[in-house]
Design a protein that fits this description.
With 132 residues, the protein is mainly alpha-helical. The chain has two domains: 4-75, Orthogonal Bundle (Arc Repressor Mutant, subunit A), CATH 1.10.10; 98-132. The protein is 61% helix and 9% strand. The chain has helices at residues 4-7, 14-25, 31-38, 46-58, 79-94, 99-108, 114-131, and strands at residues 62-67, 70-75. The protein has a two-stranded antiparallel ribbon. A hairpin with a 2-residue loop joins strand 1 (62-67) and strand 2. The chain is elongated, with a radius of gyration of 18 Å. The relative contact order is 0.11.
Length: 132
């Protein structure tokens, strides 16, 4: 079940996405290890990383523990859950809340092929049967 507090989060910026991708791949990291980890893709100052992490924490994507005097950060949700929440926001904003409208649009614009849609329907049906 979605946490109401999380479902209304503000979307993340592309730079915040870079940091989140690193946090999902490297749970429990410091600002310094995060800065070093993204340096190959984007060189950022220590103060910039700390500001981004603070913003992500305010948006409830990240939380931290304190180890001595060091903040150790981790993602609040999995990347899949965040993607689902972003998709829900798109569906609500642009498709009037209709998943069907989104899926038809994806097929109409050849983002998703009808065969892929059928395969997804089969996977969903199989998952429902497993849970029943």
């Amino acid at each position: 079940m979605l946490n109401i507090r999380r479902s209304g989060r503000k979307p993340i910026t592309p730079l915040e996405q870079l940091i989140m991708d690193y946090l999902w791949a490297h749970p429990r990291c410091t600002a310094e290890t995060c800065r070093e980890g993204v340096a190959a893709r984007r060189a950022l100052k220590d103060s910039t990383i700390r500001t981004i992490l603070r913003n992500l924490e305010e948006k409830n994507y990240v939380t931290h523990d304190v180890d001595g005097r060091t903040f150790v950060y981790r993602a609040v949700d999995t990347s899949r859950n965040v993607a689902v929440q972003a998709a829900k926001q798109l569906i609500d904003r642009f498709c009037g809340g209709s998943v069907e409208e989104l899926l038809v649009g994806l097929v109409d614009n050849q983002v998703l092929k009808p065969k892929q849609l059928r395969q997804l329907a089969e996977k969903i049906a199989a998952r429902k049967e497993k849970k029943a």
